[in-house]
Amino acid sequence: MFAVIQTGGKQYRVVPGDIVKVEKLSGKIGDPVIFDKVLLTSDGNDVILGTPYLEDSSVTGHITRHGKDRKIIIFKYKRRKGYRRRHGHRQNFTLIKIEGIKI
């Protein structure tokens, strides 16, 4: 059984027991999380597709960790002009352990 959920402007395919890295969510470590924006569910035989979301479906999990991703470098450069700008960014994330899918 799997589901496709939407959170933080992205879509994730999740299975019970998965650990998923999503955009930062508020909450403490161990807090339960409920994702109600479920786009698709499947039990192996049947696929249920929402338009755009499924009404009574939800995915539950709990927060395992908060952190920052590795740094990415944004570098602007114009040739022959001596123009160089270097900027770094580290995105915050939350690790979620998926516990169950309710269809």
For the record, the count of structural domains works out to 1
Given as residue ranges, the uncertain stretches (5+ residues, pLDDT < 50) are: none
What value does the average pLDDT take? 95
Q: In which order are the strands of the major sheet placed? A: 2-1-5-6
Structural class: mainly beta
Gap between N and C termini = 10 Å
Secondary structure: number of strands: 10
In sequence order, what are the helices and strands, one letter per element?
Answer: EEEEEEEEEE
Q: What is the subunit arrangement here?
A: single chain
The best one-word shape is elongated
Radius of gyration from the CA trace? 18 Å
Largest sheet: 4 strands, antiparallel
Please estimate the helix content. Answer: under 10%
Task: Please describe what this structure looks like.
- The structure is a single chain.
- By secondary structure, this protein is mainly beta.
- It contains no helices and 10 strands.
- The chain has a 4-stranded antiparallel sheet, with no helix packed on it. A 4-stranded antiparallel sheet has the order 3-10-7-4, with no helix packed on it. The protein has a two-stranded antiparallel sheet with strand order 8-9.
- The N and C termini lie close together (10 Å).
Furnish the topology, listing elements before pairings.
Blueprint (H helix, E strand, L loop, with lengths): L1 E6 L2 E5 L4 E5 L8 E4 L2 E5 L4 E3 L8 E11 L3 E7 L4 E7 L2 E11 L1
Antiparallel strand pairs: 1-2, 1-5, 3-10, 4-7, 5-6, 7-10, 8-9
